[in-house]
Design goal:
- The structure is a single chain.
- The chain is an alpha/beta fold.
- The protein has a single domain (3-189), classed as Uracil-DNA glycosylase-like domain (Uracil-DNA Glycosylase, subunit E, 3-Layer(aba) Sandwich).
- 45% of the residues lie in helices and 11% in strands.
- It has helices spanning 3-6, 9-19, 54-59, 66-81, 114-131, 141-147, 160-165, 172-189, and strands spanning 38-39, 45-49, 91-95, 135-139, 154-157.
- The chain has a five-stranded mixed β-sheet with strand order 1-3-2-4-5, with helices on both faces.
């Protein structure tokens, strides 16, 4: 199943209504668009990643590139492992910051700075309240740094971009992510 196909119209539009426009930090000066997220609301699982990259900034869709495709595949593989059809697992995916963390329009990706992450936190918390996830999954170290103690229940996983650098689906951490995610899916779908 290609999650990009259902990704978003309803979830993104609803997210835009929840967050609105934002000028809380300097990232609004270099963004092309606010990348609210993608998926369904309410959702069983809320994934929070680091920040939109250049392709997400251009498209307005969270986890739109190779990392997003790998994350979608992980959810699909974990759903099969849990013996749950992927179409039954509702997900919403967003980021620690909703604007592309860069120092110039169309510039290189970088990690969000602390003041940017903290300025965006009210937006992410509003999204969390609307998504009403059964479990929040923090994708990568940046998400864990800012949200590790904010949600219950919470889980974490290796970021798909890191997995791509380690061999993608052949990376040992990919299988660990899928196994852990399948246990989470079993738990929320019971």
């Amino acid at each position: 199943m290609n999650r990009m196909q259902y990704a978003g119209t309803d979830g993104r539009m609803m997210a835009a209504g929840v967050v609105g426009t934002c000028t809380n930090c300097r990232l609004h000066q270099t963004r092309r668009t606010i990348v609210y997220g993608r998926g369904e609301m309410p959702a069983h699982l809320l994934f929070i990643g680091e920040g939109p990259g250049a392709s997400e900034d251009a498209s307005g869709i969270a986890f739109y590139g190779k990392s997003g495709k790998l994350l979608d595949r992980m959810v699909d593989d974990a759903s099969r492992l849990a013996h749950i059809g992927a179409r039954h697992v509702r997900t919403f995916i967003t980021n620690v910051v909703l604007c592309h963390p860069t120092d110039e329009v169309g510039g290189s990706n970088r990690q969000p700075r602390a003041d940017e992450a903290l300025a965006c936190m009210p937006n992410v918390m509003r999204l969390h309240n609307v998504v009403q996830p059964r479990v929040t999954i923090l994708v990568g170290q940046v998400a864990v740094k800012y949200y590790g103690k904010r949600f219950n229940p919470v889980a974490s996983m290796v970021h798909p971009a890191a997995l791509l650098r380690q061999g993608g689906t052949a990376a040992p951490a990919y299988l660990t992510n899928v196994r852990n995610l399948s246990l989470i899916i079993k738990g929320v779908m019971q």
